[in-house]
Recover the amino acids of this structure.
């Protein structure tokens, strides 16, 4: 049944919804024109619009005195029928309300030393209520003949679930119900057994049973619900559990909660777009200095038990454990938390937590190892096969070859054999790249690139020097850029292969400048489009005097976006100015040297000066003089730099 309060609440919610209906002020030469405009702006058919006339329009005389119609238009609120209203209210009621089961009313008669007591309960659901006749029958069954009929009738009508004295009987204490109490199981359980009262005897009450238990020393663990139930539904000559002791609960042992995967070698495959990349095996668990690796959960104190007679049963507290720590980790002052002291790989070895700064691959980097990401130094005793990558926060050292793959280290990269990039390999070092040879690869180094045999058809950038010196050391093909110097045994080849060599500027900064320049062009183009859209909306606002809510929101969105883009553009301009200032401040003009030969086809760039080699030269150094590239006698590598390489 839907109540009036529920209907009232629902109507209040509908009023709040009606307040959210969109409205608009429109103008038109006629009433119909204004309504058509409102229909378009609100996206609602004309037959669902209501309006109020703000100003009536007039045609005027020969156009003189002509006025537009001005309307306040809004969407018609949805009409709700009473049947729909009731249905909606029903649907909005909580679905998880427990429906009370059907239950008949009950009658209870209790004989006490001071009279006869009657209790009647109300029915539930579709259950039947107790009749006066049924109540009288229950009283007669107990042999009671002296009672107040009017009082019984009132108790039945009210059904208050309370015992009310309605009569009296000839009380004989010798015939009361009797109870025996049995304490068992090491004073952990108490059973009672009750004999029914005889003629003139009284029933047991909750209070009388509890008093008997107390007199028998039962002080704890009373099952009060069972005792109360017995008062209304007595069970005679049956053992009933009415008290239970509390068993002691021993405290849980201390344990170490690890914040990393303790199963070394456990493979975790990542799935992207429904495909599994078997190169991403995630065999290494990296941690950083200061990271929490494990915590000890202290042992718990036990909870003492109690017997039904109130005696305490002591419980045992949990056992403590010690956290075993190994290399490069420390315990907090309270001895509970394990913290890493360095970046590296966390491992649990022989029960001890260790952080290793070096990750060693005993063979090749392949499908068995997967790609490697490590916050320390990586040593590969084999080769790095095509298609795999190594990224390290320390150094990378490879005893074999490096194929068409990605190597990225914040420290040095040392390749004992060579780099065979196959026009796809990319090696990037935060310091220096050392390799026997480099072929068809992309190399970036924040300091030096040092090669023993040769650099062939590669793109090589070094923020300081590129050195290629050895018995067969040659630079052939490709494009090499260095801030200070490029020095090799031979430059170019007898076949005249185009070899581009650039010095005198910071290649990484110049690359950043080029990227910023492209980004600036894209942002300025986007800004022009936004400015055009804002101008269009502002012109529309002048004509219509007021924009629709949707267009006004769009105008606000465009204005905010314009401000954000202008801020980004200012930041890019500042970055570009800083890079330009840095490039202009470089004092070293750079030089390019060949300890044996320079072949035709080599193109020399020193700052803004350019020279294309058309004749073969021997033992020469190219320097900048008066904004021109000049050829001088060969200048050997500085001795202090040679010593550093040894």
């Amino acid at each position: 049944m839907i109540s009036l309060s529920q209907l009232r609440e629902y109507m209040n919610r509908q009023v709040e919804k009606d307040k959210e209906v969109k409205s608009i002020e429109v103008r038109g030469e006629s009433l119909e024109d204004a309504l058509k405009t409102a229909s378009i702006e609100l996206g609602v058919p004309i037959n669902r619009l209501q309006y109020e006339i703000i100003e009536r329009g007039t045609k005027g005389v020969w156009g003189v005195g002509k006025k537009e119609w001005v309307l306040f238009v809004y969407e018609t609120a949805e009409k709700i029928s009473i049947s729909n209203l009731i249905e909606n209210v029903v649907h909005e009621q909580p679905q998880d309300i427990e429906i009370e089961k059907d239950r008949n009313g009950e009658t209870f008669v209790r004989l006490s030393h001071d009279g006869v007591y009657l209790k009647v309960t109300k029915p539930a659901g579709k259950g039947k209520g107790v009749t006066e006749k049924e109540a009288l029958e229950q009283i007669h069954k107990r042999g009671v003949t002296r009672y107040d009929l009017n009082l019984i009738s009132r108790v039945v009508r009210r059904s208050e679930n309370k015992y009310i004295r309605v009569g009296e009987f000839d009380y004989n204490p010798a015939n009361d119900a009797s109870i025996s109490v049995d304490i068992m199981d090491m004073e952990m359980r108490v059973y009672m057994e009750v004999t029914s009262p005889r003629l003139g005897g009284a029933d047991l009450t909750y209070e009388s049973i509890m008093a008997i238990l107390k007199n028998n020393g039962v002080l704890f663990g009373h099952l009060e619900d069972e005792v109360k139930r017995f008062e209304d539904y007595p069970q005679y000559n049956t053992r009933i559990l009415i008290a239970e002791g509390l068993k002691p609960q021993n405290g849980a042992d201390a344990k170490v909660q690890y914040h990393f995967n303790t199963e070394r070698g456990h493979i975790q495959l990542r799935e992207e777009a429904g495909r599994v990349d078997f190169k991403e095996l995630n065999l290494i668990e990296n941690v950083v200095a200061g990271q929490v690796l494990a915590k000890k959960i202290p042992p718990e104190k036990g909870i003492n038990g109690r017997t039904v007679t109130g005696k305490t049963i002591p419980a045992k507290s949990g056992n403590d454990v010690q956290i075993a720590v190994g290399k490069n980790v420390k315990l907090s002052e309270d001895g509970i938390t394990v913290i890493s002291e360095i970046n590296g790989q966390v491992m649990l070895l022989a029960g001890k937590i260790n952080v290793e700064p070096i990750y060693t691959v005993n063979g090749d980097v392949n499908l068995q190892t997967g790609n490697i990401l490590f916050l320390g130094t990586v040593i590969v005793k084999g080769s790095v096969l095509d298609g795999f990558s190594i990224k390290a926060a320390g150094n990378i050292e490879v005893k074999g070859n490096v194929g068409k793959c990605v190597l990225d280290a914040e420290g040095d990269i040392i390749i004992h054999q060579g780099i065979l990039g196959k026009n796809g390999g990319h090696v990037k070092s935060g310091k220096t790249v050392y390799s026997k040879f480099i072929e068809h690869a992309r190399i970036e180094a924040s300091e030096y690139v040092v090669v023993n045999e040769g650099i062939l058809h590669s793109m090589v950038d070094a923020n300081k020097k590129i050195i290629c010196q050895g018995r067969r050391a040659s630079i052939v093909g490709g494009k090499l850029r260095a801030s200070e110097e490029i020095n090799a045994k031979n430059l170019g080849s007898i076949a005249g292969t185009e070899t581009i060599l650039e010095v005198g500027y910071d290649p990484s900064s110049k690359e950043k400048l080029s990227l910023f320049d492209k980004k600036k062009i894209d942002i300025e183009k986007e800004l022009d489009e936004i400015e055009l859209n804002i101008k269009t909306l502002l012109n529309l606002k002048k004509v219509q005097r007021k924009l629709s809510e949707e267009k006004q929101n769009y105008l606000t969105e465009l204005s905010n976006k314009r401000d954000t883009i202008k801020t980004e553009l200012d930041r890019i301009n500042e970055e570009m100015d800083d890079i330009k200032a840095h490039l202009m401040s470089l004092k070293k003009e750079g030089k390019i040297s060949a300890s044996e030969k320079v072949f035709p086809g080599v193109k020399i760039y020193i700052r803004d000066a350019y020279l294309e080699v058309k004749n073969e030269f021997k033992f020469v150094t190219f320097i900048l003089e008066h904004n021109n590239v000049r050829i001088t006698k060969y200048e050997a590598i500085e001795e202090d730099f040679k010593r550093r390489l040894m």
